[in-house]
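Help needed: design a sequence for this.
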């Protein structure tokens, strides 16, 4: 047990690695601030397009969602980072992460928004239109708020997954939290910085997990 604590729970090494890990935490938060709003916006557009009455719009969007939900995000990230330069697009690691995660999360958020929109009865939109609202106003003020409320636990759950997904950015040497913790591990030959990073992830995401459970219980009643 003493050897385990020395290798994984060494407080002195954690204290020494703290500035390095926190530096990576800011990069992780920056990725989230870029990817999550972009993913939600892209997902909403994907949901609306996949419900379009026009086949020329609906079927390509369904194919887009299915493809990017099926492809592993790590493979997508490597393809974007290593493949686009061959097409003449030399992008930074941060841009590669933003593009890959945007495509991946737009597909997942799109399915969540689509389920939410389908959960709202068509009578809601028809009643809103009968009051003089346009189709866009009916969607924005009547249908969409109800749809978001119905799938709010799923939206939060997917957002938690996005935060954990940022750890894949270490593959393209972007200095997010896990990458920085691994650098500290390679210098100290000790896994305590990795455990420190895991503890920070837990501290950030645990309240979100509890919030999801609270919403699920409230909606069940």
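Sure. Designed sequence:
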């Amino acid at each position: 047990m003493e050897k385990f604590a020395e290798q994984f729970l060494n407080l002195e090494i954690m204290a020494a690695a703290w500035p390095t890990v926190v530096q990576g935490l800011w990069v992780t938060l920056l990725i989230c601030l870029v990817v999550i709003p972009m993913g939600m916006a892209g997902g909403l557009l994907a949901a609306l397009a996949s419900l379009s009455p026009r086949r020329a719009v609906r079927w390509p969007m369904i194919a887009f969602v299915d493809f990017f939900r099926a492809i592993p995000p790590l493979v997508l990230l490597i393809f974007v980072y290593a493949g686009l330069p061959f097409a003449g697009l030399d992008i930074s690691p941060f841009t590669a992460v933003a593009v890959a995660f945007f495509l991946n999360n737009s597909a997942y958020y799109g399915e969540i928004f689509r389920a939410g929109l389908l959960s709202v009865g068509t009578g809601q939109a028809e009643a809103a239109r009968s009051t003089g609202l346009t189709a866009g106003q009916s969607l924005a003020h009547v249908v969409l708020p109800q749809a978001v409320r119905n799938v709010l636990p799923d939206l939060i759950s997917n957002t938690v997954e996005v935060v954990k997904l940022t750890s894949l950015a270490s593959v393209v040497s972007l200095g997010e939290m896990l990458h920085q913790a691994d650098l500290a591990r390679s210098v100290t030959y000790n896994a305590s910085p990795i455990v420190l990073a895991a503890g920070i992830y837990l501290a950030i995401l645990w309240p979100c997990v509890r919030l999801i459970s609270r919403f699920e219980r409230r909606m069940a009643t």
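The chain has a mean pLDDT of 86.
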